[in-house]
Amino acid sequence: MANVVLKDLRKSYGNVDVIKGVDLTINDGEFCVFVGPSGCGKSTLLRMIAGLEDITGGSLAIGDKVVNEVQPKDRGVAMVFQSYAIFPHMTVRENVEFGLTIAKATKAEKEAKVAEAARILQMEHLLDRRPSQLSGGQRQRVAIGRAIVRKPEVFLFDEPLSNLDASLRMDMRMEIGKLHKDLRATMIYVTHDQVEAMTLADKIVVLRDGIVQQIGAPMDLYHHPANLFVAGFIGSPSMNFLDVEVKGRDGDALVVSNGALDPVGVPSTLEATTGTRLKLGIRPQYLRPSTDTQAGKLHGTVTLTERLGSETVVNLRLTDDSALIAALGEDAIFDRGRNVSLSFDPTRAHLFFAE
Amino acid sequence: MAIVTPENRGLRLVVRYTVLTIIAVIFCFPLVFMIMSSFKPSQQLLTDTGSLRAFLPVGDLSFDNYIEAFARAPIGLFVFNSMFVTGTTVILTLLICSMTAFSFVYLKWRGRGLVLSIILATLIVPFETIVIPLLLLASKLPWLGLHGIEWGWLNSYRVQIIPFVADGLTIFLFVQYFKDLPGELIEAARVEGASWPQIYRRIVMPLSGPVMATAAILKFLAMYNSYLWPLMVVQKEQYRPVMVGLQYFFQLNIAWGEIMAYLSLITVPVLAFYLLLQRAFIASIASTGVKG
């Protein structure tokens, strides 16, 4: 196993900069997830680590070795692709042992390693089938099997679950998590699904337009987002953002308010003077309803209620005409058109400069 | 759009199959005419062409034309020559053109776009315009044989094979096919440790059955039917292919029956080869839109 160190890593296509200087250290045995919206450069970054894309600038080290100019086969990485990329003319067994065959492993060694991978992934009964005879989940297992038999230093996953249906995705997600625990291997995983990122990662790297927005543990990112983008990207439903104005400072807190929000002191280190326009971020889960319309800090009218079973998502139109989402308990009953008042813990709210 | 009901669906099928059958029969006419005529004496053959009898096994039928044809020309030798030249050319073409296309599609080298454009541009150059310079070249090229260096390629198998082992059309077919293969398969093989030659041999070529069948049939037909080039470069009977062998029958008295018998005989390998690869050929034509 090995750590992976990226120093000011850059990638350009002609004049277009795609990766704009990434500094990152992924420790040995760590599960690191690159997350971000489409086009943010996360897959490009993974492909640069795999050696499938040239590096324009900076350095990439796997273990103690800088591998900028090293061929993919000599980097000690294995990759699982979004489309599985299983060779359709080979059986499952031939697919799984492909890397070993190329490395001229002995027959006994191949058989032992394939058997072990098949046992780990519970696909012993599939070994003699062709890929066309497999379901999506089984194909993904084969792709993972092909990756693990070579015992690579680093596993790379490029949105491996995005072609699977919802329930299978959850099963495979758990299996990948278990695999990481069993193998204790360094894994780098690309996804646009923040649920996958939150559940699997030891470390999440949030990317936007080729720039790292924040690096941290899942709950760090959730509770302490570095900027508006991370705050909006991590968490489901997304964080609410309200346009507020600074009314003054009260110790460590900035007192803010707007037409729908009574003045409230939110702990913040932002250097903002009275009158500055800021964004107040409140997670939907931290809003609490009150039937007493004067009791809370926020006031609005219910526009839509969605019952999801474990929780009820309530959409509101605030008195200043902005929209707000509150994730409430499963028993919360709010009819459309009803006036409600919401309260929240100011220490769990966030203030950002507007972008 | 017309509505398809269970009643008119059957009728549509009948009409469709009737039209297709008529077209198929029309396409078979020349072949049927050739085979039927090969069993008829020349006089009757010419008389029959004025009626539908030309397509029917009627009148004085015999194998005389075949016996005469074998007596007049060394058909076995000609068929062997053609099969050897054609077979070798097809195999070498598949190998060389697929490797060339592989390089254009997968290997990133400077100027490959320009080189591919030049190769594709050769498709619009008629063979007749280059045949004289090619003949002059072939007559002066060296060859390292069993008796040291020989000069001039005329009267040999190599002069019929080597100029045709790479062509723009076959390279184009392979390039288009390779571009459609999922790129992630190639990337997966690279990450798994495969070298480019291994990717060519283990991944790309095993997945290229349809395009190989198409290229093989097109090349086979072109080579087997070639006439002008072998006529110019081969004077010795020893290396003469079937199409040039046709000359043996165009003498003072043209023996049409024997010609038909000869043509029937030399058509057999073409039909056999086509039937062998028919399924893959049709699949490939249907998927690439390339016309045969």
Task: Describe the model.
The complex is a heterodimer of chains A (355) and B (292). Chain A has 355 residues and is an alpha+beta fold. Chain A has two domains: 4-233, P-loop containing nucleotide triphosphate hydrolases (Rossmann fold); 240-353, OB fold (Dihydrolipoamide Acetyltransferase, E2P) (Beta Barrel). Chain A is built from nine helices and 20 strands. Chain A has helices at 42-50, 92-96, 98-102, 107-120, 136-148, 166-183, 194-200, 218-223, 228-233, and strands at 4-13, 16-26, 31-35, 57-62, 65-66, 77-80, 154-158, 186-191, 203-208, 211-216, 240-250, 253-258, 261-267, 277-282, 287-290, 298-307, 311-318, 323-329, 339-344, 350-353. In chain A, the strands form four sheets. Chain A has a six-stranded mixed β-sheet, with helices on both faces. In chain A, strands 13-12-11-14-20 form a five-stranded antiparallel β-sheet. In chain A, strands 15-19-16-17-18 form a five-stranded antiparallel β-sheet, with no helix packed on it. Chain B has two domains: 1-72, no CATH class; 74-247 and 267-288, MetI-like fold. Chain B is an all-alpha fold and 292 residues long. Residues 288-292 of chain B have low confidence and may be disordered. Chain B contains 14 helices and two strands. The chains are: A alpha+beta (355), B mainly alpha (292).
